[in-house]
Amino acid sequence: MRLHVADHPLVAHKLTVLRNKETASPTFRLLVDELVTLLAYEATRDVRVEPHEIETPVTTTVGVRLAEPRPLVVPILRAGLGMLEGMTRLLPTAEVGFLGMQRDEETLEAVTYANRLPDDLTGRHVFLLDPMLATGGTLVAAIDYVFARGARDVTAVCLLAAPEGIQVLENAVGDRVDVQLVVAAVDERLNEKAYIVPGLGDAGDRLYGVV
Ligand code: URA
């Protein structure tokens, strides 16, 4: 697995505001959106392109365009939904699928409760969006799921990751180079309730309120 931690003062600044418990949902949503767009720039570094000839007002030249099959962006519901706009802003032609996964708070295992994805993902580059990589259970389940349907490579985009979750991911995907993890920061640890410390709390609740 390849790990990329964004190292940028704007990312650090926006993350600090997100972590602040005084930051209310409207600002939180806006900042997540901005942060994901910054992360999307890094996450799409390996997106596949093909040569594309065009005419400028002066001459003909060969540039590039996104290659088929189109990338697939998959927010993991609920909290991943807050990352969708920020990602598709840079990849407007991507297809979007949805995966509803949540962890069982007793067993901490990932449970799939909704799936709106094409059955055949052959050759696709899949971008999984999940703000918090905590125990890693959800992300590992989602990665297995899309590879089982033929995905060619997977880039997971997270805001925060715990070292424990990164280790679980490493153990699950080994040295596959077709899995990339892009995060804004790696935090200290998980607490006894599997929350990331220092973290930002429950990302879904902070985005959408407690339901
Ligand atoms: N999910 C969250 O929303 N926050 C955490 O800290 C861990 C998992």
TrEMBL record:
GO cellular component: cytoplasm
GO terms for biological process, alphabetical: UMP salvage; uracil salvage
Pfam family for this entry, one: UPRTase
Ranges of residues in domain Phosphoribosyltransferase: 5-209
Gene3D superfamilies registered for this protein in UniProt: 3.40.50.2020
Keywords, ordered alphabetically: Allosteric enzyme, Glycosyltransferase, GTP-binding, Magnesium, Nucleotide-binding, Transferase
Cofactor note: Binds 1 Mg(2+) ion per subunit. The magnesium is bound as Mg-PRPP.
Residues that coordinate or bind 5-phospho-alpha-D-ribose 1-diphosphate: R78, R103, D130, P131, M132, L133, A134, T135, G136, G137, T138, D202
Catalytic reaction annotation: UMP + diphosphate = 5-phospho-alpha-D-ribose 1-diphosphate + uracil
Pathway(s) the chain acts in: Pyrimidine metabolism; UMP biosynthesis via salvage pathway; UMP from uracil: step 1/1
UniProt cofactor(s): Mg(2+)
A molecular-function term among this protein's GO annotations: GTP binding
Annotated binding of uracil, by residue: I196, G201, D202, A203
Regulation: Allosterically activated by GTP.
Family to which this protein belongs: Belongs to the UPRTase family.
Function according to Swiss-Prot or TrEMBL: Catalyzes the conversion of uracil and 5-phospho-alpha-D-ribose 1-diphosphate (PRPP) to UMP and diphosphate.
Name of the protein in question: Uracil phosphoribosyltransferase
Species the sequence originates in: Cellulosimicrobium funkei
Gene designation: upp
